[in-house]
Amino acid sequence: MKCFILISFLICCISPSLCTIFRITPETFQFGSDIGNVEFYDSGTIGVFQKHVEVPIPILPCKKLTYVRVDIYNQLASPNVSLINNNDISVLIRYRLLQHSKSNYEIIAKYVPIPFCVTIV
Q1: Secondary structure (3-state) at 119
Q2: Cβ contact 70:44 at 8 Å
Q3: pLDDT value for 15
Q4: What 3-state class would DSSP assign to 20?
Q5: Of 3, 22, 2, whose CA–CA distance to 75 is shortest?
Q6: Considering the chain, what percentage of its residues have pLDDT values greater than 90?
Q7: Burial class (CB in 10 A: 0-12, 13-18, 19+), 111
Q8: In its keyword annotation, does this UniProt entry include Signal (predicted)?
């Protein structure tokens, strides 16, 4: 049994996309209140030598962003995840210099409609 667990762990280190087969749970980061409808989804991979990724979140017309959830699949290191809200909204995933950064991520964003908003075409 211990051998199976060790082999499973090594496979997940080599290929994080196989982690879902062995049901490894992600580390979850949440921003905002969990209300509204999911209207944005993105997923991707972070390479071994890639220490930061910035994923833009779209600003939808007549919608207000209420919630962002980021799931990181990496059993060896925990990144710093932040929501940047300047003129554009984006999620920043950052690993420190010597951390193992090979991982997968999934991002969802929820929006609510702004009442009495009309888009001009």
Answers
A1: coil
A2: no
A3: 52
A4: helix
A5: 22
A6: 73
A7: buried
A8: yes
Contact 31, 81 (CB under 8 A): no
Radius of gyration of the chain (CA): 17
Q: Which two tokens stand for residue 85?
A: 């809200």
Listed residue (37, 56, 40, 51) closest to 112, CA to CA? 37
Angle at 113 between CA 112 and CA 119, to 5 degrees: 145
- For the whole model, what pTM was predicted? 0.78
In Å, how far are 4, 12, 88 from 85, measured between CA atoms? 44, 33, 6
Q: What is the DSSP letter of 35?
A: -
Length of the chain: 121
Residue 118 predicted with pLDDT over 50: yes
Q: Which residue has the tokens 């992600």?
A: 26
Structure tokens at 110: 């929820």
Instruction: Using the structure block, give the residue that is written with the tokens 């799931």.
Output: 71
Q: What's CA 115's distance to the chain center, in Å? A: 29
Reported confidence tier of residue 82, pLDDT bands at 50, 70, 90 = very high
